[in-house]
Specification:
The chain is mainly α and about 280 residues long. Helix 8 runs parallel beside helix 10. The chain is built from 16 helices and no strands. Helices cover about 70% and strands about 0% of the residues. It starts with 10 loop residues before the first helix and ends in a 6-residue tail after the last helix. The chain folds into 3 domains: about 1-55, Serine Threonine Protein Phosphatase 5, Tetratricopeptide repeat, CATH 1.25.40; about 80-150, Serine Threonine Protein Phosphatase 5, Tetratricopeptide repeat, CATH 1.25.40.10; about 155-280, Tetratricopeptide repeat domain (Serine Threonine Protein Phosphatase 5, Tetratricopeptide repeat, Alpha Horseshoe), CATH 1.25.40. The model has no long low-confidence stretch (mean pLDDT about 95). The chain is globular and about 70 Å long. It has helices spanning about 10-20, 25-35, 40-50, 60-70, 75-90, 95-105, 110-120, 125-140, 145-155, 165-175, 180-195, 200-210, 215-225, 230-245, 250-265, 275.
């Protein structure tokens, strides 16, 4: 991604190199990229700022800057820098995709849809862009268009799919429309493709619970809790299922865990690691 030349590749070696060659913009930018890959966003941005004092960053370097802001949850600044990248590299489908992700996280669904459509025009059958276009349509209250986009992202994968996200999203959309019979096969496929994604197990649990099938609902939610033990909302939902099944002691344990996590300001939402992996350059 970056023009490394003969520069070292590890953080420690780069810092040592910069002690000897502080005017090397390439070394600062490479250090920024290495720190980004280590998810040290604040330090990464500091490295890019130091490099920018020497020369203007190139679009691929600005893409990493934008992705640092994604890691920090600052989607307005991510939007700013991804927009700059697309202005300088208008034929880069990945840049348009990443810009769309930033705009989606800002709830700018119409602009997100436009960015995803631009990515698809540049790279037909871009599965991630089509899947995220579906999310944008869903955000715009156009469930039929969202469903068509999710289905396209599934169909483009053929008989050996690898991307679980469109299956998860289509299953979730169908469940939202109370079409549980059609939702379950998509969610089961998502679980087979991404068994370590707690969001998939949470959605499956909710579908089973809606159908009053509590034992599999409990089993799926227990999997979700094991995968995301700091998501307080999962403990609350599991406690509710235990209570419905008459397991009062287990229910109280889950409610207590939920309260404890909330007091430490842990996230109430369930992480979706599939999508997180697609919000940054590689």
């Amino acid at each position: 991604m970056l023009n490394q030349g003969k520069l070292p590749e590890s953080e420690a070696a780069l810092r040592l190199f910069l002690n000897q060659h502080p005017a090397s913009a390439e070394a600062h930018f490479l250090l920024g990229y290495v720190l980004f890959r280590e998810q040290k966003a604040v330090e990464s941005l500091a490295a890019f700022t130091a490099g920018a004092r020497i020369r203007r960053p190139r679009p691929d370097e600005l893409e990493t800057v934008a992705s640092d802001y994604v890691l920090l949850g600052d989607f307005a600044d991510a939007d700013k820098w991804f927009s700059q990248v697309t202005a300088e590299k208008p034929d880069d489908p990945d840049a348009w995709y990443l810009l769309g992700r930033a705009k989606y996280n800002e709830d700018a669904f119409a602009e997100a849809a436009s960015s995803f459509e631009r990515a698809l025009a540049l790279r037909p059958r871009y599965i991630e862009a089509e899947n995220n276009l579906g999310l944008a349509w869903w955000g715009l209250n156009s469930p039929d268009k969202a469903r068509a986009a999710f289905q396209a992202a599934i169909d483009w994968q053929g008989d050996a799919p690898e991307d679980a996200q469109p299956f998860l999203n289509l299953g979730t959309l169908l469940a939202d429309q109370n079409d549980f019979d059609h939702a379950i096969p998509h969610l089961l496929k998502a679980a087979a493709l991404s068994p370590n994604n707690p969001k998939v197990h949470e959605e499956l649990s909710q579908v089973y619970e809606a159908g009053r099938n509590l034992p599999p609902a409990q089993a799926e939610l227990e999997k979700a809790v094991a995968l995301a033990p700091n998501a307080s909302g999962l403990h609350f939902k599991l406690g509710q299922i235990y209570r419905r099944e008459g397991m009062r002691e287990r229910a109280q344990q889950q409610f207590a865990l939920c309260e404890k996590l909330n007091s430490t300001h842990s996230s109430a939402s369930t992480p979706n690691p599939i999508e997180a992996d697609r919000t940054a350059p590689h």
